[in-house]
């Protein structure tokens, strides 16, 4: 009886609570994606298993954080900013690692990986400062975060990562292009969420949007989408080899 009592608390989600709904759906979707990636790892050549593993880790870490964020929202109806940035500071650098892993076949060096990781951390840390620590200067922190983001975009679209993808060709080049679009279009959702939740010259444009809904949808699409691109690359590469 005591065990049942300890586990009897369930976060209640109102029928019109779209934020709570997206937290719940995001958690379940990324949990399912994690199981899919982990269970499919042994179906591919060894060189792709690490990439699939990282994809599973990205969605698993996000699923755990979304579980906590869902309960936090249900309890306080406040944006779980701290938990969200802890999630991002773990998962976004891993998403950058995926570029290095798929480009290893073309001779990618670790310097590419560490450069992308560094830029992603700068992007996230400055974003957190603007959203949670120094909101009066949110526009300035957002500007620095945006510069780091566009540096990543430049590197993968026009810089060394692009050249490596072109030299690899085939399925690797196709996967690289798709991941680049995720970063350019999918990641662009986050600056919109940032501007919707912080004060600045842009308030009149984005103030009517719900920051958490934007973030939740963006997370699910980007993290699961990244993993599916890697999975598709592994499938194509294994088929070509067969």
Topology:
Layout: H1 2-6, H2 18-40, H3 46-76, H4 81-103, H5 110-133, H6 138-157, H7 160-168, H8 170-186, H9 189-197, H10 203-206, H11 211-241
SS element count, helices? 11
How many angstroms does the end-to-end distance come to? 56 Å
- Quote the beta fraction: under 5%
Shape: globular
CATH architecture: Up-down Bundle
Q: Structural class from helices and strands? A: mainly alpha
Count of the separate structural domains: 1
Total number of beta strands: 0
Q: Could you name the CATH topology?
A: Rhopdopsin 7-helix transmembrane proteins
Q: What's the mean pLDDT score?
A: 89
Query: Can you say what the CATH homologous superfamily is?
Result: Rhodopsin 7-helix transmembrane proteins
Provide the gyration radius in Å.
Answer: 19 Å
The major β-sheet equals: none
CATH class call: Mainly Alpha
Task: Identify low-pLDDT runs.
Answer: 1-9
Explain this structure:
The structure is a single chain. The chain has helices at 2-6, 18-40, 46-76, 81-103, 110-133, 138-157, 160-168, 170-186, 189-197, 203-206, 211-241. It is globular and about 50 Å long. The chain has a single domain (15-241), classed as Rhodopsin 7-helix transmembrane proteins (Rhopdopsin 7-helix transmembrane proteins, Up-down Bundle), CATH 1.20.1070. 81% of the residues lie in helices and 0% in strands. Residues 1-9 have low confidence and may be disordered. It is mainly α and 242 residues long.
List keywords for this structure.
242 residues; Rhopdopsin 7-helix transmembrane proteins; mainly alpha; globular
